[in-house]
Amino acid sequence: MGVFYVLNFLISVSSMGFLTTWVYVKNNRSMLACIIFHLFVNTMQEKIALTPQTKCVETIVIFFAAAFIVLTNKEMFFEKEHIGNLLSYHEEREVDD
């Protein structure tokens, strides 16, 4: 079962990375929003008192939530215009909006 829990952890961390990225970008690149989001997730995990088995259920929920967010925000996750010129790209997007 140890290998299964390691895979569960890796999937959970990857999915949480997508969720945190979404929170970061949607809140105008706010690190404070990411910190509060992470604090909320950790607090809820402690409040629920997750066991390794229930952590697997949480991973499934997080995975599907992340998949839904990525699929509904394809432009944010898959566009490539910002590569190499992130600062000027961000300024151009602010002017266009």
Detail the topology: elements first, then pairings.
Blueprint: H1 2-26, H2 31-48, H3 52-72, H4 74-78, H5 86-96
Helix pairs in contact: 1-2, 1-3
Total helices: the number is: 5
Number of domains: 1
Helix content: over 70%
CA-CA gap between termini: 50 Å
Weakly predicted, low-confidence segments: none
Topology order in helix (H) and strand (E) letters: HHHHH
Please describe the biggest sheet, giving its number of strands, its sense, and whether it closes into a barrel.
Answer: none
Q: Beta-sheet strand percentage?
A: under 5%
**Helix- and strand-based class?**
mainly alpha
How much is the radius of gyration in Å?
16 Å
| Number of beta-strand segments | 0
What is the 3D form?
globular
Describe the structure concisely:
With 97 residues, the protein is an all-alpha fold. It is 82% helix and 0% strand. The chain is globular and about 45 Å long.
How would you portray this structure in words?
By secondary structure, the protein is mainly alpha-helical. It has one domain. It has five helices and no strands. It has helices spanning 2-26, 31-48, 52-72, 74-78, 86-96. The model has no long low-confidence stretch (mean pLDDT 85).
